[in-house]
Amino acid sequence: MLCTRCRHFDAAPDGIICDHCAAAGVAPVAPPHGQGAWLRSPVGLGRAVAVLLGAVIAADLLAIWADLAMYDVVGDIVDGDSSAAVQDRAEKADSLFAAAGLVQTAALLSAAVVFLVWFHRVRVNAEVFDPFGHRKKRGWAVGGWLVPIVNLWFPRRIALDIWDASSPWNTPRSHGLVNGWWAAWVISVVAGRYASTAYRRAETAPEIERAAGQVLFADAADVVAGVLAILFVLTLTRMQDTKARSGPGAPVPVG
Q: What are phi and psi of 10, to 5 degrees?
């Protein structure tokens, strides 16, 4: 790991500061959270997360197809069409809608588990790059997603700290991708909750039609969030892999 004082040279094998700081008589500084950190490659997990997020996007596209079918047939019922053909389409649309929801849930749960493992790993790796640049303990890398309310901002804060620590030495990268992904994710989550509630409470055909439109919007937002999540995962994984292979940062100037 890097020296916890200067953060430019490798620490001595039996310590947490480098030989340069030790020779200068500089006292070591323990990481703020009191836990050691070791680099572990995030590449395999990152690729697995990207594949599973791709499955989530595919499930969302299936759901969008089901949403459109439901919206179309309920629109015909609202317009006064009560023929046997419309009733048959309504039954098929309802079955497709329910099946798409199950597929979405299975894909999302699978991706979420692997994503949390990957997110915790890149958080630990980030401590090696910068032991002091993290506002939350590493346990929040998982817990921050599971605690209601705080999961709307804790993971973003942790992701930004990881992103900054994983950026090239002395060259911070823009937060645009992280913020874009997070905004899309929050929109999709909030829209999904409102749409699910509206659909459960809908009783009349007009109410079902409006609820189907809300579900359609939520699923489309989830597709956008999924695409940005894949870009975030692959970019951060590549950043950490490149930084780990580059070795310690450039030496600081000696006065």
A: -70, 140
Element (H, E) at 200: helix 176-201
pLDDT for the residue 234: 98
Point out which residues pair with 52 in neighbouring strands.
none
| Residue 222, both tokens | 């989830």
Give 116's contacts (C-beta < 8 A, 6+ positions apart).
141, 142, 145
For residue 178 the two structure tokens come to: 């992280």
Distance CA 213, CA 7 (A): 53
CA-nearest of 209, 217, 213, 215 to 73 is: 209
- Each residue of 54-92: pLDDT tens digit? 999 999 999 999 999 999 999 999 988 888 999 999 999
Name the residue type at position 239: M
Helix, strand, coil % (nearest 5) of the chain? 70, 0, 30
Task: Kindly list the domain boundaries of the chain, sorted by start residue.
Answer: 1-30, 41-246
Nearest alpha-carbon partner for 196 in 67, 82, 42, 46: 67
Please give the model's pTM, rounded to 2 decimal places.
Answer: 0.82
